[in-house]
């Protein structure tokens, strides 16, 4: 199995933000996570990933291709992934251009990850109606994926109309087998199967639900594309400590805080998604949080992540492999309310005792098999 690292630039004081930044400089957070990222290649990690978000300390990566281009210049071999570029927030032609340039700068090391977004603060700030996000995502994904494959963009849709233009520089090679998308709502599974992309999984639902939905995606992918689906890529908040009790206590603190960041950023307790087209799943999620409460919701999320002693962490990852037949596992080791010392200690122990054994894991003997498509 491949093993990677995801960095967030997540400000530890985000929960204290009211209307703008707190008095703790953002640059310190960026330098901390960059140190983790820049060490990854020398330590043998297979890939580096980051995300796209805007306007708050939830994560401070407004341009993920810019960050990955910086990391491409600081590295030589490690793969670089976006998890994800949020297509409705962009002109898709500009996305295709940026992806092609990054692919050339990195000598073909880029793994394309796409998404459609959820944060109202971001949609409102960028000026895109949330109710159009799914339609815009589908059209934009077609423009980007077909453009990267054909070498030119051309489209006549409801939201985007584009005369034929060549993408320059041309991508170094095909993006088939190295294109993925985040698919949280059940309705997204068929969309991603039709687009012919793999799935990025960040566990946030009961495992039986995640497994059922992913198996449904696999079946649709094979029916639509005439071949088996790519194996998914899984990303989790991770916390490791040699002392089991301390590992659990610290993990449940920081991972639960991370989910409180999520609830704040996405306003998961609010009513703004009620009646918004194509966000019905999230409106139901809000009802569930209202029923069980924020603390229980954060605790439930933490139990889906990876924490414990090195052996316990490996056991959790093996269980995910057996459930999903995933091809890669990406660890988030610096997040939420962790300070610098704890984040670096987490990275150090993970690298010494967990990461090398992930790399030695074979494929699941029990999970429904995905196809042989691999991240290059």
Written account of the structure:
The protein has twelve helices and twelve strands. About 45% of the residues lie in helices and about 15% in strands. It starts with a strand and ends in a 17-residue tail after the last helix. Helix 8 crosses helix 10. The protein is α/β, with parallel strands linked by helices.
Approximate shape? globular
Total beta-strand segments: 12
In which order are the strands of the major sheet placed? 1-2-3-5-8-9-10-12
Query: How far is it from the N-terminal to the C-terminal residue, by CA?
Result: 13 Å
Number of helices: 12
What class, by secondary structure content? alpha/beta
Give short descriptive properties of this protein.
single chain, 376 residues, alpha/beta, TIM Barrel, eight-stranded parallel barrel, two-stranded antiparallel sheet, 12 strands, disordered C terminus
List the helices and strands and how they pair.
Layout: E1 2-6, H1 26-43, E2 47-50, H2 64-74, E3 79-82, E4 85-86, H3 92-105, E5 110-115, H4 120-126, H5 133-150, E6 152-156, E7 161-166, E8 179-182, H6 186-195, E9 198-201, H7 207-225, E10 233-240, H8 244-266, H9 280-292, H10 294-303, E11 306-308, H11 310-324, E12 328-332, H12 340-359
Parallel strand pairs: 1-2, 1-12, 2-3, 3-5, 4-5, 5-8, 8-9, 9-10, 10-11, 10-12
Antiparallel strand pairs: 6-7
Helix pairs in contact: 1-12, 2-3, 3-5, 6-7, 8-10, 9-10, 11-12
């Amino acid at each position: 199995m491949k093993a990677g690292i995801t960095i967030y630039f997540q400000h530890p004081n985000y929960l204290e933000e009211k209307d703008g930044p707190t008095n703790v400089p953002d640059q310190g957070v960026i330098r901390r996570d960059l140190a983790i990222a820049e060490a990854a290649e020398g330590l043998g990690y297979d890939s580096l990933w980051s995300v796209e978000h805007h306007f708050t300390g939830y994560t401070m990566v407004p341009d993920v291709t810019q960050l990955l281009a910086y990391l491409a210049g600081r590295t030589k071999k490690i793969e670089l992934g976006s998890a994800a570029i949020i297509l409705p927030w962009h002109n898709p032609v500009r996305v295709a251009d940026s992806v092609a340039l990054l692919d050339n700068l990195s000598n073909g090391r880029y793994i394309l990850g796409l998404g459609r977004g959820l944060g109202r603060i971001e949609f409102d700030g960028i000026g895109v109606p949330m109710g159009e996000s799914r339609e815009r995502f589908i059209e934009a994904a077609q423009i980007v994926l077909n453009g990267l494959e054909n070498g030119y963009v051309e489209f006549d849709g409801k939201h985007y109309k584009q005369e034929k233009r060549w993408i320059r520089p041309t991508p170094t090679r095909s993006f088939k087998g190295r294109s993925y998308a985040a698919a949280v709502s059940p309705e997204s599974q068929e969309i991603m199967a039709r687009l012919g992309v793999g799935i990025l999984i960040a566990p946030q639902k009961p495992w039986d639900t995640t497994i059922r939905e992913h198996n449904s995606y696999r079946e649709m992918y094979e029916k639509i594309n005439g071949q088996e689906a790519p194996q998914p890529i899984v990303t989790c908040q991770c916390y490791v400590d040699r002392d089991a009790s301390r590992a659990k206590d610290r993990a449940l603190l920081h991972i639960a805080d991370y989910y409180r960041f999520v609830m704040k950023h996405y306003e998961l307790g609010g009513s703004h998604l009620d009646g918004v087209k194509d966000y019905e799943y999230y409106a139901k999620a809000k009802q569930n949080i209202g029923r069980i409460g924020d603390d229980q919701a954060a605790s439930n999320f933490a139990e889906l992540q990876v924490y414990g002693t090195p052996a316990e962490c490996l056991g959790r990852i093996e269980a995910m492999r057996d459930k999903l037949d995933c091809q890669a596992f990406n660890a988030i080791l610096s997040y939420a309310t962790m300070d610098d010392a704890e984040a670096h200690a987490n990275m150090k122990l993970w690298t010494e005792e967990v990461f090398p054994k992930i790399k030695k894991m074979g494929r699941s003997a029990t999970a429904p098999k995905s196809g042989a498509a691999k991240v290059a």
